[in-house]
Predict the structure.
Amino acid sequence: QLQLQESGPGLVKPSETLSLTCTVHGGSMSSSIYYWGWIRQPPGKGLEWIGNVYYIGTTYYSPSLKSRVTISVDTSKSQISLKLNSVTAADSAIYYCVRLVALTGTPYFDSWGQGTLVTVSS
Amino acid sequence: SYELTQPPSVSVSPGQTARITCSGDALSKKYAHWYQQKSGQAPVLVIYEDNKRPSGIPERFSGSSSGTMASLTISGAQVEDEADYYCYSTDSGGNHVFGGGTKLTVV
């Protein structure tokens, strides 16, 4: 059974770079129908898509975050990573690692990690 | 930017039918998917591609779509169905968009 596990610092200082890793257990990252990505949720608020990466490294980012975000994949380690630079308190959120199923013109996220809380504070 | 609009809250009594709507211009051409998020937990997919139910999701959950509106229906809502529900789709540019979420109360 597929499991996604996020890891990384829970506290980041303002203006620094948020870095998270997601390790994929129980499934291949190299299937042609899957993308891998990140979604975040500020405490008490809704869900926000950050971006996706295909196993060959092609990336897609939210227009609102594109200038600050980098998502990469390492299939040899079954990992994807997220880097968000120049963070502010508004970037404090639970960050979820997700798998995207791209079979039709409207893909969907079918698997989610448990999420990791990142707080931006000095 | 593209938006999906949901009611902030819906309240039903146990055993009643709960219906949560999601409106968006692109829904006439794109599928809607629905997620359930219970307090302190990660979201779970309950309906995909407008009306398909993933394995393990109870039959009381169903979905439909007409024009620019999609709906999630819970027939015979249970207390354990209390949660936030989010619709999700993509816009014409391939950006992934979530609705603002609907808090379902079953009491």
Notes: The two ends of chain B are 36 Å apart (CA to CA).
